[in-house]
Amino acid sequence: MNIENRYVSGKEILDWQSIELSKGGEVEEIEWLLDIGGGFSCSSFAKLKIIQDRKYQLKLSLEKLSTIWERYLYEKIPLQYLLGKCPWRDFEIEVNPSALIPRPETELLIDIALDKIQCSLNRSGIWVDLGTGSGVLAIALARALPDWNGHAVDCSKDTLALAKKNFKNLVFDSSVSLHLGNWFEPLHPFLLGKVDLIVSNPPYIPTSFLSELDLLVSKNEPRLALYGGEDGMDSSREIINGASKYLSSGGWLIFEHHFDQSERALEMLIKAGFLNVNFENDLQGVRRFAMGRHP
Known about the structure:
Elements: E1 7-9, H1 10-21, H2 27-36, H3 45-48, E2 55-57, H4 62-74, H5 79-83, E3 85-88, E4 91-94, H6 107-116, E5 126-130, H7 136-144, E6 149-154, H8 157-170, E7 176-180, E8 195-200, H9 207-210, H10 215-220, H11 234-246, E9 247-256, H12 262-271, E10 275-281, E11 287-293
Parallel strand pairs: 5-6, 5-8, 6-7, 8-9
Antiparallel strand pairs: 1-2, 3-4, 9-11, 10-11
Helix pairs in contact: 6-7
């Protein structure tokens, strides 16, 4: 089998897949690698067994994909970091170990946010993304709300550099400012009482769960983006308390939280004076997002 050539037959791909899976891993993972790394779409797999002699051009050779697969299996490095990219919603972003790998369930946060501000879509407004990481939430909002002014905040200089790079590649002529600092600090005082939407996927892993994290996560992803304090809600408290000062009347706060934090998150929102306090489930039907509207 000629695995150095990027032009390979369907049979060569199937043989390669069988050999690599014998080393470990799951079918879905190796198909993801072939799709994102090799440019061989998952939808094409169904045709392989029928038309095995057809030639396909891969973005990376099977030899290089094998090296990536082995590093994933044996060195426990996420495929996203090894490839340096990750698809999310309708775009593909650059990723590196300075930022959390964006999860599919976080895509729902954007859908929730756009639903909550439906009545405001035809006018300009201001949104804020706290703890922007790679910039996925901010990029999605910038693309969906081109007439709005956006502000993305992160406390890591390296992470913010990554977000800026992703913005440059994916968003053109946007009114988005990126700020280095902790939560609301870079926004003070010029956005007090002016923000229509605040979104965040803050660190929310409690101390007791850190030892239970998958090695792929705990070994590679930044602790700063994971650890949320003893009960996992240190960042959520700061965000809720600050949001009540920066949101305009009727503005929304929506944030992601740990699977067991929903009741406490809703209680904190109510205590802070938010209205229409509610939750939404993630893709597995687990309470994952808390939200409230400023009076």
